Amino acid sequence: MGENVRRVAFAGTPEFAAIALRALLAAGWEVPFVLTQPDRPAGRGMKLTPSPVKRVAQEAGIAVLQPARLKSEEDRRELLALPAPDVLVVAAYGLILPSEVLHWPRWGCLNIHASLLPRWRGAAPIVRAIEAGDAETGVTLMQMDEGLDTGPMVASVATPITADETAGSLHDRLAALGAELLVQVLPELPRHLAQARAQPAEGVTYAAKITPQERWIDWSQPAERIERRLRAFDPHPGAQALLRGVPLKLWRGQVLEGNGTEPPGTVTAVGTEGITVQTGQGRLLLTELQRPGGKRLPAAEFLRGFPVSIGERFTVEGG
């Protein structure tokens, strides 16, 4: 391992972070402890369930700390009583690290962020990049400071966003790229930190957390924008619309040429290929849908159990 970096602690919670932790362990790094969010209720039984990062750590026999917060001195006491690591790698941890923790490791804290900073700082960079129609995105390794994803950039790697990219498929690619980049940088981390670049002041955007209301499709938007949202919200939380008062999830769509004069949300055609809906600008062919309690289905199969007629209208919650 690197002459100057040996003990690499880790803070993260979801699968995106677990992939990086697995890569660290596979590369032979000593991980003295892991920080992750407390176990949360999940599944039909709402049983307390460990995070993906905790499961990886437990399988490897690594000590796990799960503070609910790190705001007060009492919250941080158990963590800071441990021997300081050489570096703390942070990936989608979910808690804000206070200054005392940021400056605790010998070489500070290194964040794996799923965008090409300074574009898409914040909570949902993968979703927002697809939703905005970005041609490319990537992963940035950043030395953390007290701002929101504002620290110096240590290394980055770019990747194109394909025309059929979903948040799920892009998540998996970026997680693998981030893990690979981390393992490449760590052996010579002090050199990389010395060459880190400040983020430019121009081009800053913020990837706000998805709100419950955003799940409901606004049919007055252009078809291209709606189609991107379907992909951006796949697999979570899923885009929704009401039809005959039934909340349906809409997973896939195809923008069609031409336009109509019907009110946005109106079904203008129904066939084996899908359900054509008028939008604020253009038409959208819905090709994969899901009814409550059902599975995601191709349109032809969905229509056999949920017939749809021309002239019906999709609406939003309360619409």
Automatic annotation (TrEMBL):
Domain of life (superkingdom): Bacteria
Keywords annotated in UniProt: Protein biosynthesis, Transferase
One Pfam family, short name: Formyl_trans_C
GO cellular component: cytosol
Catalytic activity, EC: 2.1.2.9
GO molecular function: methionyl-tRNA formyltransferase activity
Residue ranges of every copy of the Formyl transferase N-terminal domain listed in the record: 7-186
Gene3D superfamilies in the record: Formyl transferase, C-terminal domain, Formyl transferase, N-terminal domain
EC main group: transferase
Domain spans labelled Formyl transferase C-terminal: 209-306
Binding residue positions for (6S)-5,6,7,8-tetrahydrofolate: S115, L116, L117, P118
UniProt cross-references to InterPro entries, sorted A to Z: Fmt, Formyl_trans_C, Formyl_trans_C_sf, Formyl_transf_N, Formyl_transf_N_sf, Formyl_transferase-like_C_sf, GART_AS, Met-tRNA-FMT_C
Catalytic reactions on record: L-methionyl-tRNA(fMet) + (6R)-10-formyltetrahydrofolate = N-formyl-L-methionyl-tRNA(fMet) + (6S)-5,6,7,8-tetrahydrofolate + H(+)
Described purpose of this protein according to its UniProt entry: Attaches a formyl group to the free amino group of methionyl-tRNA(fMet). The formyl group appears to play a dual role in the initiator identity of N-formylmethionyl-tRNA by promoting its recognition by IF2 and preventing the misappropriation of this tRNA by the elongation apparatus.
Family classification: Belongs to the Fmt family.
The protein's name: Methionyl-tRNA formyltransferase
Gene that encodes the chain: fmt
